[in-house]
Specification:
By secondary structure, this protein is α+β, with helices and mostly antiparallel strands. The chain has 26 helices and 29 strands. It folds into 6 domains: 66 residues, no CATH class; 94 residues, Alpha-Beta Plaits (2-Layer Sandwich), CATH 3.30.70; 252 residues, no CATH class; 97 residues, Calcium-transporting ATPase, cytoplasmic transduction domain A (Distorted Sandwich); 128 residues, HAD superfamily/HAD-like (Rossmann fold), CATH 3.40.50; 106 residues, Calcium-transporting ATPase, cytoplasmic domain N. The longest helix is centred in the last third of the chain and has 35 residues. It comes from Pseudidiomarina maritima.
């Protein structure tokens, strides 16, 4: 008994659900019935499935979505290859919670409705932590748990929606853009040539050039126009139909819905008039409308490419091979993908570092402009970190690899940019919602226009309705936000400012107070031991106490710890070391508890203790008494005073939040012109101050230490530096790669400019669409004039956004 298999929708291939060729295609016998297939490939695969008794493939598949991209067994096998661990290391990042993240490049995504559909579909899959889709860059940033769901499953899920997704590779981005440019140029060429021919005929007809000739010649000209307009409708306008279908599938109609209706309606009515010899034809409107729309899409593509190519070129700068030292000291040249943390590599003078690493010998002079935007070379000393993408400018450098490929700082910069592009500011979300709502309203107004004009003048009803659909297409409104945000992120990246959350571009205008940490933020963070004090009553020699301090500080990432790790050559062992965030360290030495940290931390054991060094910041003590004090010096950043002054001039109230004592913080605050100082702050205290200020208005926090992590996460806008602790970088919305306080000013200035351009774009788009609607409804605009007006409004938005690239 043969199995009952669901039939494919009429006119579609039984196997791949794609349209059958005009001649009907081929036949294959499945379950004792002949089924139509589109090509030899589908025929062969279908026969194989039947021969292997795998008919459940057809029995349980979903035939309701003919837009889905078919996956034949060969393609399924290719997707399964992405589950290989070694392959995934080249394009995924592994997080502490064992989840992984990566960026996918998606083919076929055309608008925000596509992005919404993919995002919602992925979010429902068990094991997916987060999925953020950006229609502007056509990428998906996804985080998932490999133990719960395979990567190939996610790729197949996207394919089921009608899109093809593969791991994003920066090296192939240029090829992708060339392919997309060719895609638009081919369609533009057809539309442009047809428009010129059809317009010549239309002008002759409109201005009476052919009035002296008989009616047969006029009909002949209409047929010629039909001949030229047909490839425009069927080939050049194809991207608009696909986009409209997908938006309807997502139940979020986009601007291509009225565009498609207008094109098909104008062509259909004109073709009917040509065949029946009644009415008027508007083939020139079909060709011109398509041509202008394609010009707008093509310019939008170029704008995207300009914004994204700068970051993509960073990865291309990395060498493909590296010189690795073997166990016997011999040098071997290996692919960068074969490097592992702990390997020792050599980088010749003038060459680019292929991986992040620690300098093993002497000093090195490197150019980090590709990462920070700062062109001046930076001096590196033994033990300091050197980053992939930097250029070694002196003698050969020996490095111990700490991170390769997707784990490098350079790769994280690209990831941060993708993350920022996928997070739309609230104003951009509002514009997107307005555009989607406007589409529905345009369709309603077009229907009303048709009904009213049917009563006023039935002969003009269709063409007035067509003009309404064309003129009010919200293309400019849909472009207003993505182009401005993309331009702002591009401009910030060139200035060495990385944005993790694009929403801060809009929030910044509401910020009134800027909280600033002192150590490592207003100061350089390059500490040196200036003075030490050993209590006379201490039962141990100073060298022994310095050894205890040194041993404890090796467990700390605080900037003050660096100069206290090299106090003596004497070694000692401490155990059970515990980090008390915002206070210090506690451990066991020779069976007794010892503490190293701030005065307040020590005073928990010795409440009455007062320091002998007035400006000491670090204290060593046991339960029995305080043993030593250390005064570590730090200098103000050279640009801190100008930066604080500029922030105050811009209307921000600057408040210093520091864990240091007031007598240490006050002189620096006075030097910088900061009138409000909150000293002796634990992380909880900083959090309380910021939370209290947030009751009045949004606030910005600038900090770089581990103890700043919670308050950075709390603030409406959080800013840190590229050298900051991992916790601070994870919590921050903005990362200043230049390691200069003045980079905050670049962020403020560019954010203000992008916000202005974004607002201008939205206002212009709304004014145009609202203003043109009554004009079109009164029948004062012809379809081809409406096409020109709609296209010009979109071009104005694009050109205004391009000002951010200058």
């Amino acid at each position: 008994m043969s199995k009952v298999l669901p039939e494919a929708p009429p006119g579609l291939c039984f196997h791949c659900l794609q349209p059958l060729p005009d001649e009907g295609g081929y036949q294959v016998v499945i379950a004792d019935q002949q089924r139509p297939v589109c090509c030899y490939g589908c025929q062969a695969v279908a026969e194989t499935i039947a021969q292997q008794n795998l008919l459940h493939f057809y029995q349980y598949r979903d035939t309701s979505n003919p837009l889905a991209i078919p996956l034949v067994p060969e393609e399924l096998q290719q997707l399964s290859a992405y589950d290989d661990e070694q392959l995934q290391q080249q394009f995924t990042r592994t997080h502490d919670d064992q989840s992984r993240s990566m960026t996918l490049s998606v083919e076929g995504m055309t608008c925000s409705a596509c992005a919404w559909l993919i995002e919602q579909h992925l979010a429902r899959i068990a094991g997916v932590v987060q999925a953020q889709v950006n229609a502007t860059t056509e990428r998906v940033h996804i985080t998932w748990v490999p133990a719960q769901v395979k990567l190939s499953t996610l790729l197949q899920a996207i394919a089921q929606l009608g899109y093809r997704a593969l791991p994003f590779q920066s090296a192939t981005q240029e090829q992708d853009f060339k392919r997309k440019r060719r895609y638009f140029i081919n369609r533009l060429g057809v539309a442009g040539l047809a428009t010129m021919q059809v317009m010549m005929i239309a002008v002759a007809l409109y201005f009476g050039v052919l009035s002296e000739f008989d009616e047969n010649l006029k009909q002949f000209m209409w047929w010629i126009s039909l001949l030229f307009a047909t490839p425009v409708l069927l080939y050049s306008a194809q991207p608009f139909y696909l986009s409209a279908l997908r938006s309807i599938q997502a139940q979020r109609p986009n601007m291509d819905v009225p565009v498609s209706i207008a094109l098909l309606g104008a062509y259909g009515a004109s073709a009917y008039a040509t065949i029946t010899h009644q009415g008027e034809v508007y083939f020139e409107s079909v060709a011109m409308f398509t041509f202008f729309l394609l010009v707008g899409r093509y310019l939008e593509l170029l704008a995207k490419q300009k914004a994204l190519s700068a970051a993509a070129n960073l990865i291309k700068l990395l060498p493909a091979v590296a010189d690795r030292e073997g166990a016997d000291g011999e040098i071997e040249t290996v692919p960068v993908s074969q490097l592992h943390p702990g390997d020792v590599i050599r980088v010749l003078s003038g060459h680019t570092l292929p991986a992040d690493g620690t300098l093993l010998d002497g000093t090195a002079l490197v150019n980090e402009s590709v990462l920070t935007g700062e062109s001046r070379p930076v001096q590196k000393h033994r033990g300091e970190t050197m980053l992939a993408g930097s250029i070694n400018q002196q003698q050969t450098a020996r490095l111990q690899v700490t991170a390769i490929q997707q784990d490098t700082v350079l790769a994280s910069i690209i990831a941060l940019q993708d993350l920022a592009l996928s997070r739309k500011p609230k104003l951009a979300q509002v514009a997107e919602r307005l555009a989607n709502q406007f589409v529905v309203q345009v369709l309603i107004m077009a229907a009303l226009t048709f009904l009213i004009w049917t009563w006023i003048d039935p002969a003009e009803a269709f063409w007035v309705t067509l003009a309404v659909l064309v003129a009010t297409c919200p293309c400019a409104l849909a472009l207003a936000a993505p182009t401005a945000v993309t331009g702002a992120i591009h401009k910030l990246n060139k200035s060495g400012v990385l944005l993790r959350n694009a929403d801060v571009l809009q929030v910044l205008q509401q910020v009134k107070t800027v909280f600033v940490d002192k150590t490592g933020t207003l100061t350089s963070g390059e500490f040196k031991l200036q003075q030490s004090y050993v209590a006379p009553c201490s039962p141990y020699a100073s060298d022994q106490l310095h050894a205890i301090t040194q041993a404890l500080e090796h467990y700390s990432e605080h900037p003050l710890a660096q100069p206290l790790r090299q106090l003596t050559t004497t070694k000692c062992q401490v155990s059970q070391v515990e980090t008390i965030t915002g206070a210090g360290l506690q451990g066991i030495w020779q069976n007794q508890s010892v503490r190293l940290g701030s005065l307040a931390f020590i005073q928990q054991w010795h409440p009455e203790y007062q320091p002998h060094l007035p400006q000491a910041q670090v204290f060593l003590a046991s339960v029995a008494g305080v043993w030593a004090e250390y005064q570590v010096g730090d200098q103000l950043r050279s640009d801190a005073q100008i930066g604080v002054a500029r922030l105050q001039q811009a209307g921000f109230k600057v408040v210093m939040l520091t864990g240091d004592r007031l007598e240490l913080a006050q002189p620096i605050a006075q030097q910088l012109g900061i009138t409000e100082v909150q000293a002796n702050c634990l992380p909880a205290d900083k959090l309380a101050y910021v939370s209290e200020a947030q009751q009045q208005h949004p606030v910005m926090m600038i900090g770089d230490g581990i103890n700043d992590g919670p308050v950075l996460a709390q603030a409406d806008i959080s800013v840190t530096f590229g050298h900051a602790a991992d916790l601070a970088r994870t919590a921050a919305d903005v990362v200043l790669m230049r390691n200069q306080f003045s980079a905050v000013l670049s962020f403020v200035d560019i954010a203000a400019k992008s916000r202005t351009i974004l607002r201008q774009n939205i206002i212009w788009a709304l004014v145009y669409n609202v203003g043109i609607l009554p004009v079109a409804m009164f029948g004062l605009v012809t379809p081809y004039i409406a096409a020109i007006g709609m296209s010009v409004s979109s071009l104005i938005v694009l050109l205004n956004s391009l000002r951010l690239y200058r």
